[in-house]
Amino acid sequence: MPALALYLFFFVYPVVQAVQYSLTDWDGYSADYADVGLRNFTRLATGDDTFANAVGNNLKLTVTVVLAQTALGLLLALWLVRTTRASTLLRAVFFLPTVLSSVSVAFVWRFVYDPDGGLLNSTLRAVGLDSLQSVYLGNPDSAVFWLALTQVWFHAGQMMVVFIAGLQAIPKELYEAAELDGAGRFARFRYVTWPLVAPATAIVIAYTTVQSFKAFDLVLGLAGNPPNPALDILSTRIYTTFSNNQFGYAAAQSLVFMALIALVTWVQRRAIGRATR
């Protein structure tokens, strides 16, 4: 019963309040506000290019991060699954970024991407590749990619640990039997490793998806507030709307955000369920 009460108070009640405010033009301060019906949602669907841009950026970020982080985490796990002194040291090295705060990670990579004196452009100038220099976080065509690279660097070590746990749970007898049957390395991975590491893969994909939607602090640390349109994602767009005292409209955005996460989660669970049958 206490758990149910906490759930109702901290989740159900705020959602109900958000629904109520999303139907108003409340500015967050005044006691007087008008009911506007579904006008906020109509505006989201038809007349808000900034919100549509944030949705597109967030979906691109999610797809890129999920694919890259899952692949890199699995590759690192396959490489370091055997416990040796060297692999133990390398695991610690790859896991180290995970223990850092997202703000410190953002500031480190902000220096790397700085177009004037940043590490990337300085290195390119030093080796005579000036033509490859870029305004990384200000380029609308590639800014999301650089944000994704930062997030993959930040969390890949954590995904590696999840995959290592999954790989170590696979009985060695299965590999020995497959080898006796003449299965090569790729065949053993396809028919033994990949199916049995599917539960770990599901965890990684779900966690990575959540992280890509929670990249608020990473974006603000990299690009400032408000971020440029190339890096604007749903959480920063909602924050900006709240900051502009459009609480009713921000509540509508938050509900759409929640519905989008629920939809993505449902699609993922369906796809993972089919893949693991």
From TrEMBL:
Pfam families: BPD_transp_1. The keyword Cytoplasm does not apply. It is found in: Cell membrane. It comes from the Bacteria. Residues 55-268 form the ABC transmembrane type-1 domain. GO terms for cellular component: plasma membrane. It is a multi-pass membrane protein. Belongs to the binding-protein-dependent transport system permease family. This is Sugar ABC transporter permease. It comes from Actinospica acidiphila.
